Amino acid sequence: MSDSQHGGHPHRSRRNERGPRSGGGRGNQRGGSRDGGRGGGGGGGRTSVGHSGHAEPLPTDLPATEFAAFDLAPRIEAAIAVAGYVTPSPIQAGMIPLVLDEKNVVGRAQTGTGKTAAFLVPLLALLGASEDEERIAKGEPEGPVRILVVAPTRELAIQIGKESEKLTRFVPVRTVCCYGGTPLDTQIRALKNASVVAGTPGRLLDLINRGALDLSHLDAIVLDEVDRMYDLGFREDVDRLLNASKSRQQTILTSATLNSDVEDLIAKHVGEHERVIIETNSLTVEAIDQTFYFVDPRRKPDLLFEVIKTLDPPKGIIFVRTRFSVDRLTYQLQQRGMGAELIHSGLPQPKRERILEMFREGKFPILVATDVASRGLDIDDITHVVNFDIPNSAEDYVHRVGRTARMGKEGAAVTLVTMDDGPYLTAIEKLINKEIRQEIWPGFEVKKPEPAGAKAKKKAARPPGVPPWANVARRRK
Ligand SMILES: Nc1ncnc2c1ncn2[C@@H]1O[C@H](COP(=O)(O)OP(=O)(O)OP(=O)(O)O)[C@@H](O)[C@H]1O
Ligand SMILES: [Mg+2]
Predict the structure, then answer these.
(1) What is the pTM for the complete model shown?
(2) From ligand 2's centre to the CA of 151, what distance in Å?
(3) What is the pLDDT of residues 271-322, one digit of tens each?
(4) Between the CA of residue 466 and those of 32, 146, 375, 452, 472, what are the distances in Å?
(5) In testing the pocket of ligand 1, which one of 80, 96, 113, 285 has its CB within 8 Å of the most ligand atoms?
């Protein structure tokens, strides 16, 4: 696949005939030539801000991919080939044509099945890049922002920014990441020269309020992990962001779990849309071997140490409910000589990023985390997820265990369940439509707790302190 071959791409001219977009003013720009880029330069740069916006020269002899069927901009297709993507995943096959047709799209598919590229590939392909080439030659700034991706955590925003950089390596498009805990001024400067922004709601609103982020020319907004984005914690911010980007032409919502909050969001901000739901037997990936152990709460750390000792190879995330318990458990693991580090929202941002980077690089085997690491993070070769504390929300379980077994790989998820956790376990099994296998660790056996309903019934039959022979109902008469 060479540049000249791209130039002769049979579908390219057909795309150009799409003409102005129905949305008006920016149609020509966005529907224009999808090829572009210029030699020289080079990507890179600090992730927290974004890459330079210069394009790498297009290599020759790239392998053909099945993405060719989408009639994408050749330089985006080339980046897909370099990324090693050959066959579109089901969510990509479903979403890419619809996004290319400039539809609003709601997409749901299991964790680790390529939802990021399902929205980034077509959106980036729709960005007219030839005009950008001329503009850069003239030394004009790149803005205003055309694609905005909003994510619930800083690390996920960074990861999406990186995926965008990967896919735009051959086009002169700059991606900027905007998230809290980092200096505002660098982001403000970078935004003057950016087409794609990935960020978290709070910082994005801050930048809008300061006049540094202009959404009036936005082509598309994406809410990744949309159910999380519209829960109580984020709802007001997301309402504000969507109201501030009214001139957008497309809204795209994705997650592995959708709920009634998302329906509220659609009714309020989206309206007409297409849905791509990749139906599977269970919400969780088949390749995750899911088990749980009943355990006495005081013995949870001991059982965890036993579990960790058996991990081979040991690369796992241990999810814990509170920041305090993350700190304590990590300390206990380190005391026992197990290579563990921690991540939660109480750490300074540079440290959060450093730890995650080291974990990605395999510098230590065990990451202890709160739910700040449960959504969207794509870390190679995580073999195990351990729920030291069972999550209170069944959706969180789906996302936590989804950090393993991504894109066809295998993985295992182990959940420690105490006597009081029964209802949470039931709710999870109901949501994922799958029974989680119970295992017994010799030496840690406990009696299975009675179902919550049975306990409640017993209580109702005889209030505390009333002797068994007393018939309360009759006495009241
Ligand atoms: N077509 C493809 N072929 C091979 N690998 C792919 C393809 N598309 C994406 N990937 C890779 O698959 C992995 C998972 O992708 P991604 O993070 O987008 O999943 P996701 O569906 O968003 O998961 P989650 O629900 O956890 O956020 C990434 O490492 C990505 O680079
Ligand atoms: Mg994702």
Answers:
(1) 0.86
(2) 9
(3) 999 999 999 999 999 999 999 999 999 999 999 999 999 887 779 999 999 9
(4) 80, 69, 49, 21, 8
(5) 113
